[in-house]
Amino acid sequence: MTTSKSRAVTGAHAIGNRGASPRFAKFVRQRRIALLAAAALAQACVLGWMVWERETLLSQGREIALDVVPVDPRSLFRGDYVILSYEMSRIPAATLPQDIRTGDRVLIALAQRDGAWVVTGAGTPAKPPAAASAPGAVSIAGHVQHRTHDAWPSGNLVVRYGIESFFVPEGTGKEIEGNVAARKVIAHVALRRDGTAALKGLTVDGVRMEMPPLF
Amino acid sequence: MWIARRQFGDDLARWQAAGWVTEEGSRRIQAEIDGRGRGPGFAGVLAILGAVLLGFALMSFVAANWQEMSRLVRLGIIFAGLFGSYAAAGVLFARQYDAFGHAAVLAGLSAFGAGIMLIAQIYHIDGHLPDAVFTWALGALATGLVSGSPPALAAAAVLLGLWTAWETGIAHTAHYAFLPILAALALTFHLQRWRPGLHLTGALATGWVVKLGYVLDGGHAHGIVAAIGLAACAVAVGWMVLARRAGRAGRGEFEIRAQQALAWAGGEDIAASVLGYAIATAFAGLFALQFLEKTQTGVLVGLAALTLLALVAAIIFGLVGGRRGIVWLGYVGFSVEILAVYFKTVGTLLGSSVFFLIAGLIVIALAGLAWRLHRAEDGLRGGVA
After folding, report:
1. Interface contact flag, B263 A2, Cβ < 8 Å
2. What is the DSSP letter of A212?
3. Which of A42, A177, B225, B295 pairs as cysteine with B285 (C-beta 3.0–4.6 A)?
4. How far apart are CA B148 and CA A101, in angstroms?
């Protein structure tokens, strides 16, 4: 049976082992510091991995340039970032299997026509689009955000690729917002082989805005 | 806490003056009380609040996206904040300034969260935002577990609550992935015997179940919520009765094992807390069924009667068992229910008058019943003594 005393000792574990023998308390404290250091290192590793993954993708991924289309002007600028939308953000539901659901991963094939990257096919990781293997074509991975129509094959699927936000310094978003509305913005996107995309920068009214490599 | 201690000190002096406690006994009781841990204390609370403010400062710094400072320097500040906070926590724990150590751990966790946000910002990552919150929560959970820091575990619970609410809001369906994580969190708090943490998980579980009513069956699944709540009430009451019986059971092997199992599960106190959250869940479901759904008058009357009866039962149960929390929960629910029924059904002032007359009579009858029960309990105690 758990006595109140043993409970008190167990409870004290959370606040530093008051009531335990001094040697045991010292051991627990030393172990806690070591574990705390391990936790700090693990968290730093998570952050470091995030940086490394993006830096590798941006420096080694294949670059494509996509025309940015205006979204509803009222919701275009929110806080400190600009919302970007693309032609490929809306995919006809008929080009994908009927059982596709919100949150599912999709692969969209893109090819250059008259200097612009256009959608040439759509598929899933299990059944990639055949058009993606055509010479010069690429595939970009995204997730289905929602359907515009319940009954398949009507309507479109709204797909997000993780390149829909461009963060800007405080108070500078309005200018880009105006250029997006005037269709003067091109997004430069780096693509990994598996279709993962990262936003490298924007060309706004002919001027390229790009961040230099971190190192 | 200090109010309770002061109140106890005043009571002790009064008992000594009345001759119920000897001077020596009074002195020893006071020494025993003074010797107990005083919880985090004022300084600790202020340190935690300070750490939270530092965390917000870091996050605001990230959100400002200050271009005068290079990305590398901004990242460096986050990493320095992270390692600096944890190093400070280590030093403070080693010197036995535990309250300040916990505050430093919270500051480290804030730096971790700010780091995730900063990296998402500088690389324009527009991913699934709940994933970022989940990563942050896992960091908090791991740190809380290895450092034995209740504030870090509380932060993890809050972040996990935010994560599941966000996921549910986006997908507009039940987020079942939260359940095993919630169970693990509750077990962790239980093993640490940290009651506030258990209450946090209780609140999270209640919120999760209540949300089911708004996302399942096109947002009309409040009946499921009420059913889950009532079933949980039955389980909690059974658990309380078993725990009480086990306490009075004989010394056979089975009884001892049952006592050990119930003691491990937390006994009657934990069951009473579960009952409180179960009542809240059932009431939320019944309330939505009555007042948010298009309900026919007959059904509404039936549901209102069921709700009021259940709340009266909860109040009586709380009074008999000496569970003030359940009594208050029942009173609050009863008041809200009466008010809601009034707004939904009564149109004329005369009708209002009759309604309040009937409700008043019910409550007075309830008070009389409670008084009789109280007297009967006192009589039993007197008989035993």
Report:
1. yes
2. P
3. B225
4. 41
Q: Do A44 and B147 touch (CB under 8 A)?
A: no
Per residue in A206-215, pLDDT tens? Answer: 888 877 777 6
CA distance A20 to chain B (A): 14
Q: Average the pLDDT over A176-193 and give the result.
A: 82
- Domain segments of chain A as ranges: 4-57, 63-210
**pLDDT tens digits, one per residue of A95-137:** 888 888 888 899 999 999 888 899 999 999 988 998 888 898 9
Q: Are A144 and A154 in contact (CB under 8 A)?
A: no
Q: At what angle do helices B23-35 and B2-17 cross, to 10 degrees?
A: 170
- Judged against a pLDDT cut of 50, whether residue A92 lies above it is answered with yes
- The ipTM is 0.71
Q: Check if B176 contacts A (Cβ < 8 Å).
A: no
Boundaries of every domain in chain B:
221-344
Kindly state the tokens that stand for A141. 């991975």
From residue B98, how far is each of A9, B37, B77, B105, B227 by CA, in Å? 16, 13, 25, 10, 44
**Inter-residue contact B85 to B108 (CB < 8 Å):** yes
The confidence band for B213, taking pLDDT boundaries of 50, 70 and 90, is very high
Cβ A39–B147 below 8 Å, yes or no? Answer: yes
Nearest to B71 among A160, A164, A214 (CB): A214
How many CB contacts within 8 angstroms connect chain A with chain B? 138
d(CA B168, CA B214): 10
pLDDT at position A66 is 84
A51 Cα to chain B: minimum distance (Å): 7
